[in-house]
Every structure is written in C-alpha cells, then in structure tokens.
Structure prediction request, 353 residues.
Amino acid sequence: MIRIAGAGIAGLSAGITLARAGEKVTVYEKNKTIGAGYKGDLQGIENWTSQKDALERLEEIGIRTGFAHKEVFKSTFCSPALKRYELRTSRPTYYLVQRGGSKGCIDHALWKQAEKEGVKVRFGKKGENCDIIATGPRNSAFGVGVGLTFRTKAKDNAFAILNEEIAPKAYAYLQIWKGSGCLVTIMPSGMKDKSAYLDKAVTEFRKIADFDMKNAKKIAGVGSFAIPDTAKEGKALLVGEAAGFQDFLLGFGMRYAFESGHLAARSILDGKEYDELWKESFLDLLKAGLSNRWLFEKAGNREYRLLLRLLGRKEDVWADLHGQYEFGLLKRAAFLWRKERLKIEQRILRGKR
Prediction:
C-alpha cells in the first residue's frame, strides 16, 4: 500500500501513476472536499518552458486531458500608463483552467480519474507516515496573491498590468472565461495593506476592460519557492509546492506539480533515486527561473514600458518566452548571485515564523 498526503494536483498525479502500474494507493486529504482551497480561481498551465506541449506531456504520463481548458494565444499587457500591447504566440502560451471542487474544474476531473484508476481518497484525514507528501507550501511564503473571483457577462479575455503601484515586483491579471472572472494582484509576501493594492488593481482594470462583477468572492494564495538540495524528508518524497517547485519569475506551478508527482511515483515503481529524476527533468528550469527573478527585481515601471514596447512589435513572442528558460552562461552567473540572496531571505523568513 502506497500512502500519499494531499489530494492536490501533485498528489493525485502520483496516485494515478502508481495505480495504473497496479499498486494499491490511498490519498489522505485533510479537507472534506476536493479543491477546498479554491473558489473557481482561473489559473494557467504554462506552455513555454519546454518544447514539449504541456497537454501532450500530461497524456504521456497518463493524465487524461479531457478536463475543461482553453488555449490562450493572445494576452493584452498594459504598461503602468495603461498603454496596451497585444502579445501573441504561435502555440498556446498557456492552458487556462478553473480550480476547485465543482464539475468542470481541473481538481475535480483529476480526482475522478484517480478514483477510476483505483485510487482511494480519504477526506478529512491527515496522512501520517506517508510515502509521498503533497500538502502544498511548507516553507515561509515568498509571494502572495490577493484577488476576486466573480460571475460576469463580459466576453472571454486575458489582461495583465505591469505596474509597481499595484503589483510590486510582480504583475496583476484579469482572466474572463465562460462567464467566470478572476482578478488577482501578486506581490512579495512582506507587503503591508495588501487589500489596498487589490483595490488599485480593480480600479486600473476597469479603465481598460468592460466587465461587470456579480457574486464576487475574495481569494488569496501564497507561493513558497525553493531549489532544494533534496526533495526528500526521511524516506518520504516531497512533490509540488511541498518541495517548493514553482517558477520563481511568474509563479506558475501546475506543470511542476504534475511532473514531480509522476516522477515520485516512478521512483517508487522503478527503484530509482527521486532526487536524480527531478533534477534531470527540471532543475535547470528552476535555476533559470531564479535568474529571471533576479533580473525582474532590478526592473521598475520604466523597464516595464521598454519591455512591452519591444515585445509588442513582434508577431510571435513564444520563442522569447522559451529562451528565457535556457540556462546559459549569463543565467548561470545570475543564478549564483541570486541563490545566495535567497538563502538569506529564507533564514529571515524562518526567523519571523
């Protein structure tokens, strides 16, 4: 019997891989429902860090991709002065999905697939002495997102704003899809009065997009980022955000969740070293993300304007996005510097807990 703590994307991905190989699997979920931490949030499975299409990769590892999703080829990015730039890609930039326990959400679809494969999910139970830990962020938060989900009559669209006044060292976004809206601003975890930044973000988005908001619900989330020397805790394997696997630059983490869950399962099935598997698969991507974070932190509103002006002239920016995750000499140098700073920040945050 393989025991997994956490019925999120990483935990269920591991469970599906194990069950398909004939193993008996029990997943323990402390909440009483699937996707309990979400309220219909709209999020993306990024599709630029690898030449392999994200959904093709999911099919390869046994995850059925019949869940509701939208291919996004175009997003409207706005400068601090709200000048619009249409950024387009020739292949999907990301796949938009909805999070939560309702039918149509990716969490619900993954749970149903896991059950069909024979995975037992026990709700309202904290797993003890588990083989795989997939319980979400375990370290201090380095980034936070605050926002709103709502119903709307507005047309499907995707907007983002780069502006230090509403999203310091990060970005704010508005996604509208099939009558659902999600407006979020992201910032470092140490920022005070986060609700004020959200209020500013709502005001700015209303200047560039025509949308109504009904049944608005506040949402919030944290991001814990790490490049661990080992993703093991004793004999237990850490996957997804429990290991800190997220993109340091933009915070996308679902692809890492699927992949690390699958690799942890393969480690158990094949008797291979888990740390070797995940490091071979995506360690350089994590390092490149940390380098990108260092470069982004050096920027401000002036640099945002220049960046959007440059990208806005191009017919296809996919290669530019992909190129930022190639871990070359310059990225290696930036990584080494930012890695030492990250260690200092982690010690400071641990001291505040």
